[in-house]
Amino acid sequence: MYVPSFIDLFNGPWASEKNAHGPIVMVVAFVFLYFRLRQVISNGEFERKPAPVAGCAMLVLGLLMYALGRSQSVQILEVGSLLPMLSGLLVALFGLRTWSRMWFAFFFMFFMIPLPPSVVDMLTLPMKIGVSYATEHVLYWLNYPISRSGVILIIGPYQLLVADACAGLNSLFTLEALGLLYMNLVRHPSLLRNVSLALLIVPISFTANTIRIVFLALITYYFGDAAGQGFLHGFSGLVLFLSALLLIISVDTLLNWLVSKRVNGKRVKSEGAGLQLPPLAPGAWQQMIGGLRLRPAAVFFASTLAVLGVAHALVPKLGAAPSTLALEQAIPASIGDWKLLPNAVAQATLATNEEGGALTDEIYDDVLMRTYVNAQGAQMMVALAYAREQRQDVKLHLPEICYPAQGYKVLNLSQATLAVGAGGSIVPGKHMLARGNGRTEAVTYWTRVGDGYPNAGLAMRTKIFRDGLQGKISDGILVRASMLVPDGAAAPAAYAAQEQFLRQLVAATDARGTPLVAR
């Protein structure tokens, strides 16, 4: 049942730098489960007290998660279902006490599940800004010529972009997983020490990642951009984990000194469970699996086949392609008293990848970027991006994510009710004020997915999920208007002008074209 899931993982998230720890965690978890099972059997702690009700409840939960996750491409449900499935089998056949002696192996598997992209987007941006800020101040303190604009570092003649992979989120999860595994193997009796070390792995990961970015900045400064982006860029990953390892050992040593207890003048040693292979009595495995009935196995096998069928039936289908005009033909060159202005200033990119590069052609089916000017000389930048398919892994990119990736700092972001629909109907949108690349921009935008207006990452994914359960794949469009302003005080007037312009834009759009608002 999980073979297609793991094929997708190895060809998708696990093939990227952000989730490269996934297969390592999976292998370590199963190896740990095997050795822990050997220890439990050898110590005579393996009991057979089946709990079919609790076990079947876990199995039903796992099957439901799999059906929904597989059909709607929600990997946190699809991959996460493996945990209640394995746990449910163990509880149903051998009982809760036996499961409780091996719980850590199942808990450890959580780290192999790819995080939801909405969570990654929410956590990555502040981490990138934090790492960039720390690197700038460390190198400035060391008298290097460095400055920063958002997540872009300028050191000497070189410019470095702190990408998502350099934010430290992936290293944080890898180090947290390894730290918890280390604590479970050492089994130190002090709860304070274990909890403190687990919590301190977060600042340790941040510090190690800052050391990595400082290392790359110095390599680029002394040896050029080619050296910083070549072999030494990959080598910096080793610097990251060596730094983290030294910090973890140092912190653990300090914690051991602070919380160690003495009994009869001697320090209490850790239990040291280790991964030793204890000897097993003859026939131990046969005794463990002996007596298992064929009927429950057949019922479980039939259930998995049924769930596979349900998952296949729930996969949403793409409808017939609508006959619409391209945005270039649907949007007129004159909108009210606004006229098209050729050769205008460049706008912020509509979609960016992890390194801040443009992803517009990969995300959208049709894109239009124009600048209009009115009789007073005010300029209005307009960006429209249409995608026929909105899926969990391919969706509209929000400006508050794309702008910082291009060196902007979001100064203000607020919800807005925009009276831009037919007859002045309200469309939920957002106002954003961003500064970067030598200018300040006031932005008004909304996103339409199908017949809804989700303007946040989680809301957008929830809308896609709901539409998918109804068997349909919705289209989506991003409508963005922006103006250059001298400062934040001028933003309210710019927002008012943008709302008026967007109302005229919706009214002037050819009805046969891509709908900017839900019809």
Description of the structure:
- The chain has 519 residues and is α+β, with helices and mostly antiparallel strands.
- The protein has helices spanning 3-11, 21-42, 52-72, 75-78, 82-94, 96-100, 103-108, 117-141, 169-186, 191-223, 225-229, 231-259, 284-289, 294-314, 327-330, 360-363, 399-405, 457-469, 491-508, and strands at 146-149, 152-155, 158-161, 262-263, 266-267, 334-335, 338-340, 366-373, 379-387, 409-419, 426-436, 439-449, 476-485.
- The strands form three sheets. The protein has an eight-stranded antiparallel β-sheet. A three-stranded antiparallel β-sheet has the order 1-2-3.
- A hairpin with a 6-residue loop joins strand 10 and strand 11 (426-436).
- Helix 3 (52-72) packs antiparallel against helix 5 (82-94), helix 8 (117-141) packs across helix 10 and helix 10 packs antiparallel against helix 12 (231-259).
- The longest helix has 33 residues, at 191-223.
- It starts with a helix and ends in an 11-residue tail after the last helix.
Shape: flat
Strand content: 15-25%
* Helical fraction: 40-55%
As residue ranges, the low-confidence spans are 267-273
The profile of the biggest β sheet is: 8 strands, antiparallel
**Ends distance:** 41 Å
Sequence of strands across the biggest β-sheet: 6-7-8-9-13-12-11-10
What is the tally of helical segments? 19
Mean pLDDT: 82
The overall number of domains is 3
- Rg, alpha carbons: 28 Å
DSSP strand count: 13
Class by SSE composition: alpha+beta
